[in-house]
Amino acid sequence: MPDTLTQSADQNEPRAGGALQEFVAFRIGAQEFCVDIMSVREIRGFSPATPIPHAPSFVHGFINLRGTVLPIVDLAQRLGFAPIEPTERSVTIVALAHGVVFGLLVDGVSDILTVDESALQPPPDITGEVARRFISEVMSIDGRMLSVIDVDHVMPQLAGAA
Amino acid sequence: MSLTILTIDDSRTMRDMLNAALTPSGFTVVQAEDGEHGVEVLDGMEREPDVIITDINMPRKDGFAFIEDVRADPRHRATPILVLTTESDAEKKQRARAAGATGWIVKPFDQDKLIAAIRRVAAYSG
Amino acid sequence: MDAMEAIRQTFFEECAEQLVEVETGLLAFQDGEADDETIDGVFRGVHSIKGGAGAFHLDALVAFAHAFETVLDELRSKRIEPDETFVRLTLRSADALSDLVAAARDGETADTAKSDALLAELEAVTGSADEKAEADEDGFAFQPVTVDVSTLFGAEAGETTYTIAFRPHDKLYARANDSMTFLRELSTMGEMQVTCDTEALPLLADIDPEAAYFGFVVTLTGTLEAEDIRAVFEFVEDDCELQIDAASTDDADASFEMELATPDEADLLVLQAMLDGTDQDEEAIEATDEHASFADTEGVGAGDPDTAPESALESDPAQSGISRSSGSEAGKREPEPSRQQDPEPAKDPSVSTPAGGKKEAGKPTKAAAGQTIRVDLDRVDRLIDLVGELVIHQVMLSQRAVEAGLTRTCDVATGFEELEQLTRELQDSVMAIRAQPVKSVFQRLPRLVREVAEIAGKRVRLVTQGEWTEVDKTIIEKLSDPLTHMIRNAIDHGLETPEDRVVAGKPEEGTVRVSAGQRSGRIVIEIGDDGAGIKRDKVRDIAIEKGLVSPAAKLTDDEIDNLIFMPGFSTASGVSELSGRGVGMDVVRQSIQSLGGRVTITSEPGKGSKFTMSLPLTLAVLDGMIVTAGDETIVVPLSMIVETMRPKATEVRRFGGEARLINVRDRFLPLIDVGLLLGYRDRPGDPTAGVVILVEMENGDRAALLVDGIQGQRQVVIKSTETNYGMIPGVGGATILGDGRVALILDVDRLVTCSREAGHSLDPATLQAAE
Hints:
The structure holds three protein chains of three kinds. Chain A is mainly β. Chain A has helices at residues 2-12, 75-78, 129-132, 156-159; strands at 20-28, 31-36, 40-45, 59-65, 68-74, 91-97, 100-106, 108-116, 120-121, 135-141, 144-149. Chain A has one domain (20-159): CATH 2.40.50.180. Chain A has four helices and eleven strands; from the N terminus they run H-E-E-E-E-E-H-E-E-E-E-H-E-E-H. The longest helix of chain A has 11 residues, at 2-12. Chain B is α/β, with parallel strands linked by helices. Chain C: Pfam families: CheW, H-kinase_dim, HATPase_c, Hpt.
């Protein structure tokens, strides 16, 4: 009996003391990505942005986040894909890195994952050049394959600081 | 029981310095900004301070007048008063003593000497 | 920041306040308006600076402050007859003191040439060469002098036994000293034994509770010197008989025996109690108690200082229930409960005087001290931000209500109106937190005027007005430089020399008048002089000569006067020391405009000139013109706008490739297509379908901005775009509009510069946010 209990605990709740990480998983097109929940401030629906003059194409514009002027990055374009066509399901993930707050525009948030760090692997070499700059790790869960986005590198002005 | 010290000085710098020297050593510091304020604060205190430290040159009521007032009040006549001043000349010291000062500390003071002087005059050494 | 650094900061803040008080007082003295209290205040200010400086070992500052203070003390005690030279010396000393403080604050080495010279002058006044010696003594007067007595007595280095005979006078207790405390302190210095000499004690009936009857003989053995012991009695040297004798360890017992010669029974009893640390027969002790509580001292005899306080507490008569016959103790450390609860505050009439109710009445100085709090600026800014949001949301909500079809008269609409009023009031109140009186800037002017007048060889009287006018802290900080330049200009160029003034039938002394006031939501500062006024012919000639205006241009008097703000314009015909280090008025205009302000000059020949500068009350909000460019809404700062116009097709000319010029009253100005420049539009807009906004840049140049339309004017809350993003060429910030959208605020100067540098299309590759 005690053995069974221990085992079931191991399966459902990963070992106490083992490094667990939580991730917010989301979609861009057909691909799945995620970000460390520790860098996520909130998740909100799409709202139209004010274009920023002379900004790189992946910078969607500014939105008003309760009084903060928040720059929004079209993560699809940042990763080298076609720009996101905003729909009702489009979502802005508000992230914080090095004291800078910004939004990541994605196609939709799927769920929140609790993952043992052993499930994380370095990204394979085959990933595209552009995407590799922003993908720190990949993980495989229940047959799903997710790439972990390193938010530190998404905003251009943070690239140097990170 | 920690000793309660009433410090009276019109200079914020000096009040801060006294506070910084005394509080970490376990004293409870109550502050006033001039002689007149000092009398008000003293009268408002629930328990008599163990020692009063006062500056001499202050607006509204100077240190001499403050000491005289305190000594004239039976409730405070036995409260030790240390005069804190840059005046080191005998005349000022003599006037302070005549007014009823218990002792003196010369500015700039160092923390150890300040505390030694307080302990020297306090009824209980804390 | 550690505690010491924080105090250091406080010290310099306080120095600044004291320097102001010193200068204000000396100026009042100069004008013959000073009473004794003013001089006392000046003395106290210098004295306080010296005191604080000593604590931070700022020796140069201490030395100078000491000399200055000594002179002021002479003045205070009326030992000096002040003449004009003397007053000027004190003012110059105040200036030098201020410099020394600044140098100390910034960690620089002060230019001592000036202060040394003054120091000599100051010392000459008091005529004391021994001043220096006295100053040195200050710091060391109470440091115990180390004398190795053990060598004097031929004893071995190490422990020495001292016999201390100590007999307090009545006065010792009157000054709240206590024999017990000395014994306690001595007990911490070595092995101690105490005998009490009660010989002088009268019969109980004859005891005066305020008198001192006991003497003490202490033998103390330890590694210490006679001076250490003397130091314990430092405060009471004059209030007691004190004799300290050193003896070798061997002699200790003999000496002790000698002192104990013929103890009577009471002595033995007391002695026994003290030595044993027992509380046997406390009543006997109490009976002979005078000021020093023997219950307290009993721990001393045990030779363990640590237990002394505790046993003192335990044996406190109040706790042990022993009744006291001596009345002296009651009034001492244990005020009777009835007294403590006495509702009457005090007998002293001065105590019931409300704070500041005396001569300081009406002056917001010390009295206000207790009513202010120091708040971190970040917190205030956060509050201002939040209130800004509240205002925006309130506007949005009202708009939604209207969109939802609510009539203006319904209850909800009325409620919104009240809400709007409240939020506006809240915004004003919050803005007021950041507001400070311009006094802090005005305070520096007297010195400036003195120095400039001296260099320019003019005689000047400064009159200030409206120094309590409040304006945002950030603006105050940036006000100083332009104000300084304008005052320099007024004295150097505006005022005539004393000789010329006499010829013109004016008093020798010129007047510079600086006033501040609020006018329609802005602060207006005027700097006027009663000099010769602007020589318009000369100004016009110079402007033509330098190619600033065309010889054919018809200019009004006003336009000519304001030519002095054009870059490269300078009327200085001879190079004075002031013009040499000064900057042109164009720089003044630039710095005022960067604060969202404007500056103009008016002049009347022979009567004088007047600069008028108007500034926003805050940098947190901005008066803007809301315009549309390429489907986007943009805010143009109102302070930059000269006029708006609808151009005719004939007024616009092509110039080179894409560039266009617009003819505004015979002047061709570059036409800047805002929508195109910001990338909101792919192709140039049609000028005849849009609106041209004529702007004046910080350097005085004008340009024409082409936008699609004007929505209106309003105050907007300024938000940073750099916090979370970065620099955007041509954009100074952003705001949030009533519909909740973000709108960019133009940085007109940078926009125009960008358009010049990059033709009409900026290259995104070079201007990308930072990548």
